[in-house]
Amino acid sequence: MTSTMQKQNLQTLKGFRDFLPPEKRARDLVMAKIKTTFERFGFEPLETPTLEYAELLLGKYGAEADKLVYSFEDRGGRQVALRYDQTVPTARVLSQYQNELGKGFRRYQIQPVFRAEKPQKGRYRELIQCDADIFGSTASIADAEILAVYYFIYRDLGLTDLVIEFNDREILISNLMPYATQDLTVFSIIQSIDKLDKQTVEEVATELVAKGLSAINANKALTSIQQVNPSPNLVNILNVAQELGIPQENLKFNPTLARGLDYYTGMIFEGKIPGESGSVGGGGRYDKLIESLGGPNIPAVGFGLGFDRTVEVLESRNLISVITLTQVLVTIFSPDLQGESLKVAQSLRSAGINTELYPDPSDKLDKQFKYADKKSIPYAIVIGQDEVDKNVVTLKNLVTHEQTTLLISEAISNLKI
Amino acid sequence: MTSTMQKQNLQTLKGFRDFLPPEKRARDLVMAKIKTTFERFGFEPLETPTLEYAELLLGKYGAEADKLVYSFEDRGGRQVALRYDQTVPTARVLSQYQNELGKGFRRYQIQPVFRAEKPQKGRYRELIQCDADIFGSTASIADAEILAVYYFIYRDLGLTDLVIEFNDREILISNLMPYATQDLTVFSIIQSIDKLDKQTVEEVATELVAKGLSAINANKALTSIQQVNPSPNLVNILNVAQELGIPQENLKFNPTLARGLDYYTGMIFEGKIPGESGSVGGGGRYDKLIESLGGPNIPAVGFGLGFDRTVEVLESRNLISVITLTQVLVTIFSPDLQGESLKVAQSLRSAGINTELYPDPSDKLDKQFKYADKKSIPYAIVIGQDEVDKNVVTLKNLVTHEQTTLLISEAISNLKI
């Protein structure tokens, strides 16, 4: 570190992260698997810019959220803002390219979004959002497809115990409407009910009483909503979802799930991993949102997946196998044998094996092994004079320290697990 | 489009782009191939944040470039800036995590960078940079590895005719130094010489005379630099590069290649595609840059690849095969047969086939075929009562309009090309 360097220069901004190779590899792996599942369900990728006109984003998320939008004036005097979510830019895309996209547009989007929030454990200012939506259909198959792709993403990642809790906004509204008064909206009642996953029935009843309900009505409201059955709409969706392969035990009707109140119009759901607190994202049907954001009048159903949370859960369960991208280090026995190592590296790479070539021919072999170890490269290849004479290589397993001498073609088959 | 929408809302900012599925698919495909080649050469992924302290970035790229950095004050009063390149943040990373990264860190980085430049054809304000560097080695193998991974990226993308023009900064300096005077630096002479790829010898000679050289010296300088041979350093690197698999015909010594003057210290190179103007990126050795940026004193060699330019060339040569992510649309014959379609969609997906399920069971079959056509989905599957009775499906090729009736297992093998 030079004396010209300021301490501050050495830091990332709070809430922003560097991903060094081990973490970046893990994240890339998870992302690639998610992408594969999206595409297996016919979802197509979309990308929108990091910067948009501030006017597009502000006023769309509510006054509180507006404060969390990174916005500024650029050198051309334009008010610009960093992407805050992927829904508003997509509403713009749906307006701008209506003819190209057509009906039945199903897209996924995996991009960073930016939120000037107070950073805290698990909450970042730059984070990956991972959304999928089907636009232009109100059919229950569309809802079920969304549940299915969500379930299979987690199943394919190894989280086979994911539970999808689901509900229908109509259930909440029709069952709680009778308790609404001029002073107490049904939405306010739902807000209290939504707390049942963290509070006792008594606590929620107390809150409802404090909001103005009689004790009798508060209890009636609570009892009735807890005993309600899935709506016909929900039953339809669930049948289709099961035919699409979601096992019944991974689906759980939760009549008190509210999932925000703002824009959902039908089925809503949240993904929960047993043993982990909170959800790993969720979604639902929002048939009026795109229009209210300034887009066309187009029904939609979809979800946002908590990418960081999902990676954390996978890591805590050791479900991301410690992948070493680089399978083998080709060492250089001595400067005069360098050419042999180059040839072997070239053969391995031609065979599709991820191969690092040690760059400094004058370094001792021991130093080269330590280098591979430090980088968690599992194998090293040594080509000394003996090996050259016999036209073979020595393949050393750096974990078990076993070594075998074999033809280069054999080494290739051994490394090609 | 609703009346609440402002015209401006519907636009991306100039110099910023949406990538709709066809373009995004092509870009993702190219990116995945580049990633694969990087990893085959032992390079590992690194990611740094989009936002940094402005102080880290400003003053690093020169006064002109500083004006192109998107910087602003965030809500916490911090001066922040959008990533302008990947080298300065990496210099920070090299300082901050010296112990973790160690010697021989070879990383690739593929991220957007932001430049408040005047947008014009092929020049964007948000663009993908794609860098790879080896840190901590001065050995010629490191230089050759950089040339090799660069060559193989293009070869694997199908651009087998890529020509790597190379030179050594030492050649330029030692050969032109004799013509430098107190009023005319060797760098100024090099700057003129660098124009030989676009200007005639006469034009460059005229420029050198205008800069103060005598006509005799200008011609001598031009003749001498054009006739010079590769330095021993360069010969070494080239031998290694060829042993690593770069064919000789893809390498071209160009003693007048200068590639900017600011920070290269040894081998320099540029990739050119025959028949295309300009370069598709390049790089070289820069042993002092990381320290001058405030990082540790660490030698480095690497390159930046022109991602947008490369995608353009691939598209113009039809080298990105029109990939359809979604292989088949499962149609719904009639609402009462919906369940059969669901089952088939589930089987296809289980077999790893990218399958879209048509969402609206009441739409006519013809409409469903048109939908698949519009999305360029090449196949459709039909399951009518006949098919159900015989436990088969009809597979329709939407390009040739051929259709065959076969077992679902046979349909799967047909689709699994």
TrEMBL record, chains A, B:
<feature type="domain" description="Aminoacyl-transfer RNA synthetases class-II family profile">
    <location>
        <begin position="30"/>
        <end position="335"/>
    </location>
</feature>
<comment type="subunit">
    <text>Homodimer.</text>
</comment>
<dbReference type="InterPro" id="IPR006195">
    <property type="entry name" value="aa-tRNA-synth_II"/>
</dbReference>
<feature type="binding site">
    <location>
        <position position="115"/>
    </location>
    <ligand>
        <name>L-histidine</name>
    </ligand>
</feature>
<dbReference type="InterPro" id="IPR033656">
    <property type="entry name" value="HisRS_anticodon"/>
</dbReference>
<keyword id="KW-0067">ATP-binding</keyword>
<feature type="binding site">
    <location>
        <position position="133"/>
    </location>
    <ligand>
        <name>L-histidine</name>
    </ligand>
</feature>
<dbReference type="InterPro" id="IPR041715">
    <property type="entry name" value="HisRS-like_core"/>
</dbReference>
<feature type="binding site">
    <location>
        <position position="129"/>
    </location>
    <ligand>
        <name>L-histidine</name>
    </ligand>
</feature>
<keyword id="KW-0648">Protein biosynthesis</keyword>
<dbReference type="GO" id="GO:0005737">
    <property type="term" value="C:cytoplasm"/>
</dbReference>
<feature type="binding site">
    <location>
        <position position="259"/>
    </location>
    <ligand>
        <name>L-histidine</name>
    </ligand>
</feature>
<keyword id="KW-0030">Aminoacyl-tRNA synthetase</keyword>
<dbReference type="InterPro" id="IPR036621">
    <property type="entry name" value="Anticodon-bd_dom_sf"/>
</dbReference>
<dbReference type="GO" id="GO:0004821">
    <property type="term" value="F:histidine-tRNA ligase activity"/>
</dbReference>
<keyword id="KW-0436">Ligase</keyword>
<dbReference type="InterPro" id="IPR015807">
    <property type="entry name" value="His-tRNA-ligase"/>
</dbReference>
<dbReference type="GO" id="GO:0006427">
    <property type="term" value="P:histidyl-tRNA aminoacylation"/>
</dbReference>
<dbReference type="InterPro" id="IPR004154">
    <property type="entry name" value="Anticodon-bd"/>
</dbReference>
<keyword id="KW-0547">Nucleotide-binding</keyword>
<feature type="binding site">
    <location>
        <begin position="263"/>
        <end position="264"/>
    </location>
    <ligand>
        <name>L-histidine</name>
    </ligand>
</feature>
<dbReference type="Pfam" id="PF03129">
    <property type="entry name" value="HGTP_anticodon"/>
</dbReference>
<dbReference type="InterPro" id="IPR045864">
    <property type="entry name" value="aa-tRNA-synth_II/BPL/LPL"/>
</dbReference>
<protein>
    <recommendedName>
        <fullName>Histidine--tRNA ligase</fullName>
        <ecNumber>6.1.1.21</ecNumber>
    </recommendedName>
</protein>
<dbReference type="InterPro" id="IPR004516">
    <property type="entry name" value="HisRS/HisZ"/>
</dbReference>
<keyword id="KW-0963">Cytoplasm</keyword>
<comment type="similarity">
    <text>Belongs to the class-II aminoacyl-tRNA synthetase family.</text>
</comment>
<dbReference type="GO" id="GO:0005524">
    <property type="term" value="F:ATP binding"/>
</dbReference>
<dbReference type="Pfam" id="PF13393">
    <property type="entry name" value="tRNA-synt_His"/>
</dbReference>
<feature type="binding site">
    <location>
        <begin position="85"/>
        <end position="87"/>
    </location>
    <ligand>
        <name>L-histidine</name>
    </ligand>
</feature>
